[in-house]
Structures are given as structure tokens and as C-alpha cells.
Amino acid sequence: MTVSAKPRPTGHPGYSETLPGQEESAEVARQLVRTALAAWHLEDLTDSGVLLVSELVANAVKHTNSRLIRVVVSRPSEKWVRIGVTDKSVVMPEIRKENGDNLPTGGRGLLLIDALATRWGTDRYGWGKHVWGELKVEDEDA
Q1: What's the pTM value of the predicted model, to 2 decimals?
Q2: Which of 83, 109, 124, 127 is the most buried (most CB within 10 A)?
Q3: Which residues make Cβ contacts (< 8 Å) with residue 103, sequence separation at least 6?
């Protein structure tokens, strides 16, 4: 199945896309983040934003049985960019505790999200959840 990014504003300002719950959707999600950040002239957040959405999509695909996921890129305020993925699993994500170098390679997604995002969280719904990370927009004068 081929998926393509068709960014559509979902509020002021925001971008979202419903994608198959498949690994291939990560590239479309990355393009959605690039498009939104370019539109907002926040290209300096691109590397972190792309990696953040990649991990969020990978977690949704790997740890849920959602046939579809929804990627949302928004600006809750001038100081924040929020990148999130919604799925239909009610299982809440948990960071695995680091135990030296014994953490399996597959258990580092939320640790990476925690390191990349200034803050992150999960919004629970009766039918699923929305896991998000926020990147702080640095002052141009700083």
C-alpha cells in the first residue's frame, strides 16, 4: 500500500493525517512534520520533530493493533509545537527503567521521546489514546 502526505490544516494552525498502522507510515508522518515546521518557519526543530514522530509512529505500530493511526502536528501556543499519534489501544505507554546496558534495543522508544521532547504525555480516551511530545520554540532574540 502506498501512502502519501496530504497535509491539511485542522485548526489554527495544525496539520494531521490518518495513516495505516504500518511501519511505512513513518515516512509520511515525517513529511507531515517537515511540512508543518517549514510552514511555521521553524526548520530548526526539524531534526528533533522528525525523530520524535518516527518514535511515536513506531510505538503505535509495534504496541497496538490499530488498523489506522492519526498523526497530528499543532501549535498549542507560539512557544510550543506538539507532535502526537492517536491509536485505538487503551494500554498506556510506560517508560522501561534503565538497568545499565541491559535494556533491550526494542525498549528505548519512550526513553528517546522523553529525551527529545521538552515535555510529553498521553491523553486517554474511552476508545484509545493520544501520545504526544512537545518541542519548545526558542526565542529568536535568545
Answers
A1: 0.84
A2: 83
A3: 96, 111
